[in-house]
Amino acid sequence: MRPTARLLRALGLSLSVVLGCTADPTDFVHQDDAEEGDSQYGVSEAAAAPGVRVPTSLGLTRNGTFYLTFDDGPSARYTRRIMEVLATHHAPATFFVTGANIAGNEAILREENTAGHHVANHQWSHVVATSTQFTGFLTRERDTLDRALGVPHPRLFRYPYGAGNTAKEAVVRANGYPDGGIGWDVDTLDWCFGPDAYCDKVPTAYRRDYVGWVVSEARRTGGGVMLFHDIQGVTAINLDTILTRLEGLGYHFGALPSRGLP
Ligand SMILES: [Zn+2]
């Protein structure tokens, strides 16, 4: 992370917010910023940290099954392309949507829902919310998603940057999301692989091998929730290859449970 990004993060801000970069959400990439995987937690702590962990209440079968998740969309540029690949592989997914990217892209959310994917809550604004902001960011996103879809969305929530804590977890549950924040087991770090991306998270051997990195991490974990971003071109371009490789290794793709729906 660049020093500027580190400073902004310390202030609870994202660079894109500071720059007011909202004109084209598909340009709202995180190349200068932290992303979900750039957690403040180390690997050993991650298992227990609210927001980063995958709640056991979801009852997932991690052995050989991956649960694909795509954050920060919808993207007019990439999300439909990703959905086409998912359809080819009969792979269900969960799209954790950033509220500020919804306006003008409501049709994409309805297409995700119609295709059988989950449309889920990634907070209204992609920042580390203060405790004062948090309830409003959570519920504004919840209500906007339901309005855009015309039906309730599955009550699944993921914190931007995985930045949960015990107090926020109580707010999430009180507002209809029974599992609290949904973290991940495999971080693809896709935001690290763009042409101009700066990132020191990827081991040197994989710096220019996004597919190899994801497959390596998949083999290391053997299953679980996998974190991508549908605003990242590198994911749109390589997803078909990644899913084909994972299928070749005998892995399956599963859906997160439909929380809070009748
Ligand atoms: Zn995010």
CATH class: Alpha Beta
Query: What average pLDDT do the residues reach?
Result: 86
Largest sheet: 6 strands, parallel
- Name the CATH homologous superfamily: Glycoside hydrolase/deacetylase
Return the structural class.
alpha/beta
Would you tell me which CATH topology applies?
Answer: TIM Barrel
Work out the number of β strands: 6
Hetero compounds: zinc ion
Distance between the termini: 43 Å
State the helix count: 9
Report strand %.
5-15%
**3D shape:** globular
Residue windows where pLDDT falls under 50 for at least 5 positions:
1-33, 39-46
Radius of gyration, taken over Cα atoms and rounded to an integer in Å? 17 Å
Order of helices and strands: HHHEHEHEHHEHEHE
Count of all domains: 1
Helical residue percent band: 25-40%
Q: Which CATH-level-2 architecture?
A: Alpha-Beta Barrel
Description:
With 262 residues, the protein is α/β, with parallel strands linked by helices. It has a single domain, classed as TIM Barrel. 35% of the residues lie in helices and 10% in strands. Strands 1, 2, 3, 4, 5 and 6 form a six-stranded parallel beta sheet that branches. The chain is globular and about 40 Å long. The N terminus is likely disordered. Zinc ion binds next to loops.
